[in-house]
Amino acid sequence: MTTTMRSLLFVCSYLILCLQCGIWGLKPIGADWPTREFRAAWVATVADIDWPISSRHTSNQQQNEMIVLLDKLQDLNFNAVVFQVRCAGDAMYHSQIEPWSRYLTGVQGKAPSPYYDPLDFVVNEAHKRNMEVHAWFNPYRANTSPSRSGLAKNHMAIEYPQYAYTYGSDIYMDPGAKPVQDRAHDVIMDVVKRYNVDGVHMDDYFYPYPVSGVSFPDSHTYNAYRSAGGRLSHDNWRRENVNNLIQRLYSSIKTLKNDVKFGLSPFGIWKSGYPSGIVGFSSYDSQYADSRKWFMEGWVDYMNPQLYWRIDPPKQSYTHLMDWWLQQNTKHRHFYAGCYAGRVVNGGWPVSEIRRQVEESRDRNNQLSLGNVFFSAKYFRDNSKGLADMFKSDLYTVPALAPEMSWLNSTVPPPPSNVQASGNTVSWSPDSSGAVRSWAVYLQQADNWNLVKVLNKDTTGYTGLRGQYAITAVNRLSTESDAVIINVNSDQPVIG
C-alpha cells in the first residue's frame, strides 16, 4: 500500500469515527450576541455596601442574602463577581494572618457564629452558578476611621504602628515600608494558595487620595531610602513602591497558580490631559499609580479602569478615555471598562446611559474591549430604576462565557462523553478528568451556533426543543473542548 493510500484510508477512518461519535473540532459562535464577554459586578463589603446587609445579621441570614444576590446575577447572565475580601487590613475569610472583618460580625477579630467562611461560601455558590470569583483586596488602607480603637491585636496597624499613619479620616499603611509590602503580598498569596478563586483584584486605593494641604507623612521612610543610596525623587520612589508590589504579585500568582487571573481597577484618568481634552484628577501624580505602565508591561491579565463618567461630556468622557486606554495595550491583555451603575440612583443618570456604555464597549471588541464590571451589585439585586430589567431584556439576554486568555496556556479539556438524546433531553457522562468547570450548550439557528445554556459541572443533561445541539466542556479559564453534535427530535417545551 502506498503512502498516499494509507493517508487517505486514515482520513476516511477518522471521518467515519467523527460521524459515529458526533465530535468535531469546532467552536460554535453566536451571531447576534457575544458568546464571549466578561460580565461582572463588584460586591463591596466595606461598610456593608452590598453584602452583608448588616453585620448584626445571623450567619444564616448573611448566607441567604448572598444567595439572593448571586441568584439575581445568574438570572441576568452575569458570569463573574469581584468579591471584596480585604477592606482595611481585615479578612472576609479565615486567616491566620489578619483578623476577621468587623463588617462581618460587628467586632474586628470575631468569627461568625455559627461559624462559616464567607469566601469559601461565595466561591462554592458562585461556581455552582458558573460564575468566576475574583478576590478583591485593598493593599494599604488600615482603617476607615482615624482611630485605632477596636483594632485587633494582629491587625497590621497594631503590629507595625511605626508605618501606620492617620491621614484625613482614615489610617493608611506606608507603601514604602518593606513589612507593609510583604504583608500585602503574603496576605494575597495566602488566599491564592488556600482558596479556589479565579482571580485576584485590586481597585483604585494605592497611595491615598490626597487630603488638601496635608502631605502623606512618609518622609522618614523616604529619607531612610535615600540614606541607603537611593536616588529616585520622592514622587518617583512612591510610584516605584507600588510598581514593585504589582510586578511581584503578578509573578508570584503565576508561579503558584498560572490559571488565577490578576486584574487591576485604577482610577479612570491616568494623567490629566491624557488623552487630549481630558481634565481631571491625576492618579499618576496624586496616588502615585502608574497604571499605564502596568498595562503596557503586561503585569496584569486584565485592566479594568473605573470610567465613572458619561459618554458625552468632553472633559471626562467614557468613550474618549476608553479609546486612550485601549491604545496603551501593547501586550494585548484584556480590557474591561468599569462602569458606575449606581449613578442611576445617586447621579441622575438614565439607565439608557449604562446601556450605551455597554454597547460602546462591545463596538471595540476587536481592540480587546471584552466586557464590563459594574459598581455595584446591589443596584442589580434591587433593580434600581429598572436597571436589572434593562439588562435582562436588552443587554445580557443570553449567557456568555468569559473570554479566553491565550497567554495563560490553558489545556483543552476533554469533550463530553457518552452524549445521547432521549426524547427532548440530551445527556452525557459526568466529568472524570477534573478539568471541567462547566458545560456549554449551543443550538444551531439558521447558520449560527447560539449559546443557550451554561451548566455547572455537576449537571449532565439539558432539556430543549427540537433541533441540532452542540455540547462542549469548559475549564476554569473558559477554554472549550471540541463540540459533540447531537439531534433532538422532540417538540416538547424547554424546561432545562
Automatic annotation (TrEMBL):
Sorted UniProt keywords: Signal
Residues annotated as domain Glycosyl hydrolase-like: 37-340
Tagged with keyword Nuclease: no
Signal peptide from the UniProt entry: 1-25
Membrane-spanning residues: none
InterPro entries with a match to the protein in the record: Divisome_Glycosyl_Hydrolase (IPR052177), GH (IPR017853), GHL10 (IPR003790)
Pfam family, one: GHL10
Protein name: Glycosyl hydrolase-like 10 domain-containing protein
Organism, scientific name: Patella caerulea
